[in-house]
Design goal:
Helix content is 83%, strand content 0%. The chain contains 9 helices and no strands. This is Heme exporter protein CcmB.
Length: 225
C-alpha cells in the first residue's frame, strides 16, 4: 500500500468518525460563534480602536476552536489503545501524521467558513481591504497552527497531563506564526494600515513548510523516543 493511499485511509477514517458523531465539529463551531459574540460585546469600540483589535478578534475563536480539535485527537486515539494499534501496524508513520493533519485542517476550514462571516456580521466590519490577502492568511495561518498542533498533540499522548502539556508546548512555538497572521490580517482588513506584506507572507509560508516536513519525516523516530 503506497504512502498516499495510507494517508487517504487515515483521513477518511478520522472524517468518517467525526461526521458520523458530529459532536466535535458542532462544539468547535458553537464555541467559535460564542467567542465572536463575547469579544464583540467586550470590545464594542470605534473603528479606529478596532483596527488594533480586529485581527485578534477574528483569529482568537479560530485558534481556540482548533485547540478543541487537538484535544479530541488525544482523547479519541487513547480510547481502546487506538494509537498503539496504528503504531504497531505496517502503516507509514508519516502517512499517519499527514492524514490526521489533513483531517483537522478540513474541520478548521469549516469553522473558518462560519466564524469569519460571523466576525463581519457581529463587529459590523466594512468589506476587507484585500479579500485575496485575507483568504491567503486564513489558509496559511490555519495550516501552520494545525500542523504544529497535530504533531505535538500526538507526541503528548503518552503524558498523563496531555491537556496541560499541549498548550505549554504549542503556544511558544507558534509565536512567529501569530505575529505573521496578526500583521497580515490587519493589512487585509484595513486600507489605512500599510506595511510590507512579502516578508510576513514568506515567514508564514516558511513556517508552514518547515513544520509540515519535519513531522512528516521524523514522526516515526520521535514517537519512539
Amino acid at each position: 500500500m503506497n504512502f498516499y493511499k495510507q494517508t487517504f485511509l487515515i483521513l477518511k477514517r478520522d472524517l468518517t468518525l467525526e461526521f458520523r458523531q458530529k459532536s466535535l465539529l458542532f462544539s468547535m463551531i458553537i464555541f467559535a460563534l460564542m467567542l465572536q459574540v463575547f469579544l464583540n460585546i467586550a470590545f464594542d469600540t470605534d473603528m479606529e480602536a478596532m483596527q488594533k483589535l480586529g485581527a485578534g478578534i477574528l483569529w482568537i475563536p479560530i485558534l481556540l476552536s482548533a485547540m478543541l480539535g487537538f484535544n479530541r485527537i488525544v482523547a479519541m486515539d487513547k480510547e481502546n489503545s487506538v494509537l498503539t494499534g496504528l503504531l504497531v501496524s505496517p502503516l507509514d508513520k508519516g502517512a499517519l501524521y499527514l492524514g490526521k493533519f489533513l483531517g483537522n485542517l478540513v474541520l478548521i476550514f469549516i469553522v473558518i467558513c462560519i466564524s469569519v462571516p460571523a466576525f463581519f456580521l457581529f463587529v459590523q466590519q466594512p468589506y476587507p481591504n484585500s479579500l485575496g490577502l485575507l483568504i491567503a492568511v486564513l489558509i496559511l495561518g490555519s495550516w501552520g497552527f494545525v500542523a504544529m498542533g497535530v504533531f505535538l498533540a500526538t507526541l503528548a499522548q503518552s503524558s498523563r497531563i496531555t491537556e496541560l502539556l499541549l498548550p505549554v508546548m504549542l503556544f511558544p512555538l507558534s509565536v512567529p506564526l501569530f505575529l505573521g497572521i496578526v500583521q497580515l490580517t490587519e493589512v487585509a482588513l484595513y486600507p489605512s494600515i500599510e506595511m510590507s506584506q512579502n516578508v510576513w507572507l514568506i515567514l508564514l509560508a516558511s513556517y508552514d513548510i518547515l513544520f509540515t516536513i519535519i513531522p512528516l519525516f521524523l514522526f516515526d523516530y520521535l514517537l519512539e523516543v
